[in-house]
Amino acid sequence: MFFHKDSGLRPDDPPAPMRAAMILLAAVCIGIGVAPGPLYALLPYRVDYVPYTTAHVVFQLQLLLFSGLAFFLLLGLLKRTPTITLDTDWIWRRLGVRLLRGLDDASGRCWDAVADGTTGSAARLVRVLRSSHGPDGVLGRPLPTGTMALWATVMLGAYLVLSYV
């Protein structure tokens, strides 16, 4: 991306709030790098780490210099070539879209099956309840008051027996 010819496009400067945010965060990064003590003071436990020892600085400079050397030695391999580069983003651009469409279709079929089954079960339940509790059902016809009193007495007697057993 960075190693092909210049396209000549020049974008406008970012708005002032974006520049202010970048300047503020750059200042915070530099401040933490120069004086990390206040950041260490925020940690819940005491820290005995000194970042600017000679060994640590030399080691980090070696990493920086050798990565720069590898970059400049391999700069010729970084030139742009007129090829199509397949990256991992094809997973969500192609395969992911197909997978989600398939899941959407499958969930729609499952939802239709559940809705049809629920509707059928509810209709059967209504038919069963209407046959027993409806106007012509066994539990829907009016009973004499004496029969109801008898059954209430039997139920209370059964409860009394079970509570003392």
Task: Provide a descriptive summary of the structure in words.
The protein has 165 residues and is mostly helical. The protein folds into two domains: 68 residues, no CATH class; 68 residues, no CATH class. It has five helices and no strands. The chain starts with 15 loop residues before the first helix and ends with a helix. The mean pLDDT is 88.
Give a nutshell description of this structure.
The chain is mainly α and 165 residues long. The protein has helices at 16-34, 37-41, 54-73, 90-133, 145-164.
Query: Unreliable runs, pLDDT <50, ≥5 residues?
Result: none
Number of DSSP helical runs: 5
Largest sheet: none
The N- to C-terminal Cα distance equals: 87 Å
Strand content: under 5%
Structural class call reads mainly alpha
Assembly classification: single chain
Element string (H = helix, E = strand): HHHHH
Helical coverage, percent range: 55-70%
Radius of gyration: 40 Å
Q: What keyword list fits this structure?
A:
165 residues; mainly alpha
Task: Spell out the blueprint of helices and strands.
Elements: H1 16-34, H2 37-41, H3 54-73, H4 90-133, H5 145-164
